[in-house]
């Protein structure tokens, strides 16, 4: 999660919403990324989506069983759906997202009995650090826009 936080800080420095993600399998890093939708002009370029692509390419498989994804913010519905489709075993996140969180805050796509796969969820890891980074980013953005 500390690496995901460093990546999130990089995103903030580039003007992107500060979210960082890493994915591992048996202790081996398969991918690391941070949000890039603005830079990539791609609404799907969330950190989680980018690491899923990297892990799939690394393993040469679109299924990622046994993997653990660490991310600084609770996944949104798009990312949660992709995590389920990829068969990610476990999702660990820092800050909850009360607006679009899809791992329990607003809805729970990751652990929905109607779907054919459920991800194990661990919430609140380094929660304060992750939340503070997001809060400061949006506070700075609001003050810059009002100046």
What layout of secondary structure does this protein have?
Blueprint: H1 2-13, E1 20-25, E2 28-34, H2 37-40, H3 47-59, E3 68-73, H4 77-85, E4 90-95, E5 120-123, H5 127-146
Parallel strand pairs: 3-4, 4-5
Antiparallel strand pairs: 1-2, 1-3
Helix pairs in contact: 1-5
Structure report:
The chain is an alpha/beta fold and 147 residues long. The protein has five helices and five strands; from the N terminus they run αββααβαββα. A five-stranded mixed beta sheet has the order 2-1-3-4-5. β1 (20-25) and β2 form a beta hairpin. The longest helix has 20 residues, at 127-146.
Question: Short summary of the structure?
Answer:
The protein is α/β, with parallel strands linked by helices and 147 residues long. Helices cover 39% and strands 20% of the residues. It is built from 5 helices and 5 strands.
């Amino acid at each position: 999660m500390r690496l995901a936080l460093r990546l999130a800080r990089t995103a903030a420095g580039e003007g992107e919403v500060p979210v960082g993600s890493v994915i591992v399998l048996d202790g081996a890093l398969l991918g690391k990324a941070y949000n890039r939708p603005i830079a990539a002009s791609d609404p799907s370029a969330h950190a989680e989506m980018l690491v899923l692509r990297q892990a799939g390419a690394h393993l040469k498989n679109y299924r990622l069983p046994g993997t653990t994804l660490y991310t600084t913010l609770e996944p949104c519905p798009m990312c949660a759906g992709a995590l389920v489709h990829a068969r990610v075993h476990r999702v660990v996140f820092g800050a909850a997202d009360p607006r679009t969180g899809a791992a329990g805050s607003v809805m729970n796509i990751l652990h929905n009995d109607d779907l054919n796969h459920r991800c194990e969820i661990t919430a609140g890891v380094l929660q304060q650090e992750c939340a503070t980074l997001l809060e400061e980013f949006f506070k700075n953005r609001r003050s810059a826009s009002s100046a």
